[in-house]
Design goal:
about 75% helix
Length: about 110
């Protein structure tokens, strides 16, 4: 349907936006305002089409990049700053939620 096509266009746009701004804090409310839909609708659309809500998807993308940075020898606090997390404690909590290990442990395993 036309609505499904619009949803896919919005998702593609947001995926590109996330990629372009991955090193900054990314907020659902900003993304929703930019696309002209509600926060709840945008997050539900992500969940329906991708299997993750908006915040989960952004975090997964950031953690993918964080893993690479840690493998390349960056320190946890550097990765946290480079990816726009509010602080390294929050980054560590998010990292562990998606990988089941702390960033320090992950770094040492490399």
């Amino acid at each position: 349907t036309a609505a499904d096509n619009v949803d896919l266009v919005i998702l593609c746009h947001e995926d590109e936006r996330i990629e372009m701004h991955i090193t900054e804090p990314i907020h659902l409310s900003d993304a929703a305002a930019e696309t002209g839909v509600s926060s709840a609708y945008l997050s539900t659309m992500f969940k329906k089409e991708i299997g993750y809500n908006f915040i989960e998807y952004v975090n997964l993308r950031k953690i993918e990049l964080a893993r690479q940075m840690l493998q390349d020898g960056k320190m946890v606090y550097e990765v946290s700053e480079l990816l726009g997390f509010e602080n390294s404690t929050y980054f560590s909590r998010v990292f562990k939620r998606y990988t089941d290990v702390s960033p320090d442990t992950y770094r040492k395993q490399m």
